[in-house]
Amino acid sequence: MVAEVKQNGVASKAQLMSVKRGEPTLVAPAEATPTGKQYYLSNLDQNIAVIVQTVYCFKRPSSGHGHEGAVADMLRAALSRVLVHYHPLAGRLGISPEMKLTVECTGEGVPFVEADAACDLADIGDLSTPDPTALGQLVYSIPGAKNILEMPPITAQVTRFKCGGFSLGLAMNHCMFDGLGAMEFVNSWAEMARGATELTVPPFVDRSVLRARDPPSISFPHREFEEIADISGMAALYGEQKLVYRSFSFDPDRLERVRALALAGGDLERCTTFEALSGLVWRARTAALGLAPEQQTKLLFAVDGRRRFVPPLPKGYFGNGIVLTNALATAGDLLASPVSRAAGMVQEAVLMVTDEYMRSAVDYFEVTRARPSLASTLLITTWSRLAFDGADFGWGEPVMSGPVMLPEKEVILFLAHGKERKSINVLLGLPTSAMDAFKDLLDEI
């Protein structure tokens, strides 16, 4: 019954929005940029070439900051200026002679769409839960695109609402930047819209600093790529039941209770909020899915390597500076142990990420061209430290922002929540029965 109500709610919201798009135009860099060559993407960029869609919502601009009809023109002009600095975004994805993803520096520009919604901004909800059916109308996708090579690195859509508010919807390929890089790009775009002539954090565009070693040297097992057999029938469960999305809020008091749980077992002297919360949701999801005791389950998450590389990556590095790390356990062992054990495995996975581990990961891809396997896996991605709400284009910060969808069914997103960003929303999708069980487990905290 919960799934039916949810499904009906999504449908009615999507119909209520009824977004009408105009024809896309191309926004090219405002000045000449390097063209006619290939822009190098590192091995850390190759593994995560998925489209990430986000929406930023703004109240009606005051008369002193451009009326609603001028918003799109202001954003378009500022985008043109910021693309001078981020010129690869104006190109198109291609394949290098080494059969890796690259960017063809064509300079043709970013597809930009203006749209109108037949509702007020308040009608779309609070963006606390991914909603591809409704929120997907606020982001522009290339019609008929069959693969990422047919999609530009980024598209932008400005949607005007009846109340005078508007949204900015972005579809960005993760191979172009990680969360921090994307945040710096959006904030730089906002700076240009506010009239800046210099960027606070200019992008460092040379990704060759992360080239593989010659010869490559693989010094770690890199179990993040390991294929795990599904002996618990998870594929059948996901195939038989609807995928339900939910958001679970953890305020500071609740987060402190989670940390206390992680420390209670005596395995850890200290742990971060991320380590404690990751251990908790890994155990809860494993239990909710009803995995067989002997089922291997893998936890993946990204660690920001910018300061962990030796030397550190340059400030403003335009690219993926994140490296996937992992923890493995059988479902039986994970559930038979306290939360402290799961949090401890997360902590061990964080500590494993040294300069040598990251160089080894770069070299591993160079030799194997492997992609991380998501079979029997939970992939946690955290936006809790990303200040996307600080994107002030001249009419104030967004009143809300969030993802349109999760890129894979195995992904859980940690998203900062609240005015002071001290709460965390945990966003995920699960089959209906597993979601009910997951909710019951988290309600105990």
UniProtKB/TrEMBL annotation:
<keyword id="KW-0012">Acyltransferase</keyword>
<protein>
    <recommendedName>
        <fullName>hydroxycinnamoyl-CoA:5-hydroxyanthranilate N-hydroxycinnamoyltransferase</fullName>
        <ecNumber>2.3.1.302</ecNumber>
    </recommendedName>
</protein>
<comment type="similarity">
    <text>Belongs to the plant acyltransferase family.</text>
</comment>
<dbReference type="GO" id="GO:0016747">
    <property type="term" value="F:acyltransferase activity, transferring groups other than amino-acyl groups"/>
</dbReference>
<comment type="function">
    <text>Involved in the biosynthesis of avenanthramide phytoalexins, which are phenolic alkaloids found mainly in oats. Catalyzes the N-acylation of 5-hydroxyanthranilate with 4-coumaroyl-CoA or caffeoyl-CoA as acyl donors, forming avenanthramide A and avenanthramide C, respectively. Does not accept feruloyl-CoA as a substrate.</text>
</comment>
<dbReference type="InterPro" id="IPR023213">
    <property type="entry name" value="CAT-like_dom_sf"/>
</dbReference>
<dbReference type="Pfam" id="PF02458">
    <property type="entry name" value="Transferase"/>
</dbReference>
<keyword id="KW-0808">Transferase</keyword>
<keyword id="KW-0611">Plant defense</keyword>
<dbReference type="InterPro" id="IPR050317">
    <property type="entry name" value="Plant_Fungal_Acyltransferase"/>
</dbReference>
<dbReference type="GO" id="GO:0006952">
    <property type="term" value="P:defense response"/>
</dbReference>
